[in-house]
Amino acid sequence: MRLDRSVGDAVTAAVCRHHIGRLERIGSRSLDAPPGGWAEDAPPPRTGNDVEVLVDGEVALPRIVADVRGARSHVHLTGWFMSPDFVLEDGEAPVILRDLLAAAATRVDVRVLLWAGAPVPVFTPARRLVRAVGDELRRAGPIHCALDTHERPLHCHHEKSIVIDGEIAFVGGIDLTSLAGDRRDSQRHPARAALGWHDVTTRTRGPLVADVADHFNLRWQAVTGERLPDPPPSSPAGDVTAQLVRTLP
């Protein structure tokens, strides 16, 4: 255990030095907030937001399901990995991710942007697995799925975001997958067969949503060459001032 911790600490420190060095070489200060707390190399702080902090999948996943079902124009998702058969909600008719997105795609534009997977198959997820996920989502319905292969050593695309109608954005740490852990944890944290996953995401409405949408559009164009329409500005929805900060230059 002590050796594992030492190795993990060393890898973490190496990864941090690697990315800080890359950012410094291009003059970015994304990881170094100036006095006042707002990052300089990022979209400016936005006022008028409503930001909810949703702790654990038991709280977050039903909210995602309800908002995707209520989408009127589009649902755009990013993820480190997604499991098409992931059960978002239990019940007599469980809500399955593949079916939820396929049903939405019959009404609105649904786009999924995933990390293409580890180029060396000793790491998870392997590229073959991610390609199979993309194929399964496309077979399920008119879902646009793109796999992002832009990467460097010690790097993967680890974002988890959902933009709905340009009005709602989920950004946080909960992937829609059962790979490497059960994301459907609760605040009771019951013991389960699989590894638990205590995590958090945020649900935001207001002007900040356009910055999340801009970021999705930027990455989608970098991967597919397709330019999506600029998101319209969102009306104020609350009294929170917040800023979207990216490590992506």
Label this structure with key terms.
249 residues; Endonuclease, Chain A; 2 domains; eight-stranded mixed β-sheet; two-stranded antiparallel ribbon; globular
What is the C-alpha radius of gyration, as a whole number of Å?
18 Å
The largest sheet is: 8 strands, mixed
What is the CATH architecture term of the largest domain?
A: 2-Layer Sandwich
The CATH topology of the largest domain: Endonuclease, Chain A
What low-confidence regions span 5 or more consecutive residues with pLDDT below 50? Answer: none
For the residues shown, what is the average pLDDT?
Answer: 89
* Relative helix content: 25-40%
What count of helical segments does DSSP give? 5
The fourth-level CATH homologous superfamily of the largest domain is Endonuclease Chain A
* Beta-strand percentage range: 15-25%
What does the overall shape look like?
globular
At the first level of CATH, the class of the largest domain is: Alpha Beta
Q: What's the domain count? A: 2
Task: Describe what you observe in this structure.
There is one protein chain. This protein is an alpha+beta fold and 249 residues long. The protein has two domains: 1-42, no CATH class; 46-236, Endonuclease, Chain A. It has helices at 2-25, 57-69, 97-105, 127-140, 208-224, and strands at residues 46-55, 74-79, 87-89, 95-96, 109-115, 144-148, 161-164, 168-172, 200-205, 240-242. An eight-stranded mixed sheet has the order 6-5-2-7-8-9-1-10, sandwiched between helices. Strands 3-4 form a two-stranded antiparallel sheet. The two termini are 36 Å apart. The model has no long low-confidence stretch (mean pLDDT 89).
